[in-house]
Design brief:
Length: 294
């Protein structure tokens, strides 16, 4: 039978079996945290990889990701309110970075419902145990939407599998909706929250013509205002007049244009300030396991 509620009626239960550590390698609140090494093994990556090894093979990509994080942190303004949703590792690192750089703002972790969680380093999940345990107060999901409706969320970060020049994003499927080539995770709160927050910011670390398309296969979330998009090559503004706002020192305007499926203006494009050793050290202290590069 199809169960209509997340609570299982007692008449449908024959027995209860205790399964110790049954949620591993994910977490069980108040009992144990995520097992990052096990998750890496499951995903087929090397859990013991050192940053020095990665730098030998992908130093440019690693540096570009650091630039993207700093660009995201620059979108956070003092005395404002910023929010993240599910699967938000890069935005969470950017938020911790901004806090440690002295910015004062309110942070809502929508996944955990935690307001201003006490985070000094990045856990392997946007619903970190520390975010659930150490926070100023808790918001129900409905209250988060109320915050958005009342105009109290200044910036929120989102992801996308496909991004169109007008700012439409696709989080639903690749190919025809009825017979998709790839079924994606879905929108979560993106459909509503993108239009409720004052400054929606998209982060995509796969800047290619497959990601940046003239028209998305499925419009999961549309928007009428301009949208800032932070990528691994630079920062764009999409909408009525798509343009390049910023180029990382290890990228170029030409590289961005060659990897975008539509035309971009670049009259006002500037080169990002070169990242400092102090900034890299601060990012490394936040993300001690270098999850941002994996």
């Amino acid at each position: 039978d199809r169960i209509s509620s997340v609570t299982i009626p007692k008449e449908k239960i024959n027995c209860i079996v205790e399964l110790k550590n049954g949620a591993l390698p994910t977490s069980c609140f108040r009992f144990y945290n995520y097992d990052l090494s096990a998750l890496r093994r499951y995903l087929g990556s090397n859990p013991g990889i050192e940053k020095s090894e990665m730098e030998k093979t992908s130093n440019r990509r690693s540096l570009n990701i650091d630039y993207a994080i700093i660009s995201a942190a620059e979108c956070i303004k003092d005395n404002g309110t910023v929010a993240t949703g599910v699967a938000s590792p890069i935005p969470m690192i950017a938020i911790i970075f901004a806090k440690l750089c002295g910015k004062r703002f309110t942070y809502i972790n929508c996944t955990a419902g935690a307001v201003n969680p006490a985070l000094e380093s990045y856990d392997c999940s946007s619903a970190a145990i520390s975010a659930l345990e150490k926070k100023e107060y808790f918001l129900e999901l409905s209250q988060v939407f109320d915050y958005g409706l009342s105009g109290k969320i200044d910036a929120m970060f989102f992801g996308a599998a496909q991004i169109a020049k007008n700012g439409d994003i696709n989080l639903s499927c690749i190919g025809d909706y009825e017979k998709p080539k790839v079924k994606l995770a879905g929108p979560a709160g993106a459909v509503t929250m993108r239009n409720l927050c004052k400054n929606p910011v998209i982060i995509s670390l796969q800047h290619s013509k497959k990601t940046f398309v003239d028209k998305v296969d499925f419009v999961t979330s549309g928007i009428t205002k301009d949208t800032v998009v932070i990528t691994n090559l630079g920062v764009l503004k999409l909408g009525k007049n798509p343009e390049i706002l910023e180029v990382y020192p290890c990228s170029s305007i030409e590289e961005i244009r060659q990897n975008t499926g539509f035309e971009l203006k670049y009259d006002i494009a500037k080169t990002a300030k070169k990242i400092s050793e102090e900034e890299i050290k601060l990012l490394d202290s936040i993300d001690r396991k270098y999850a941002r590069y994996k």
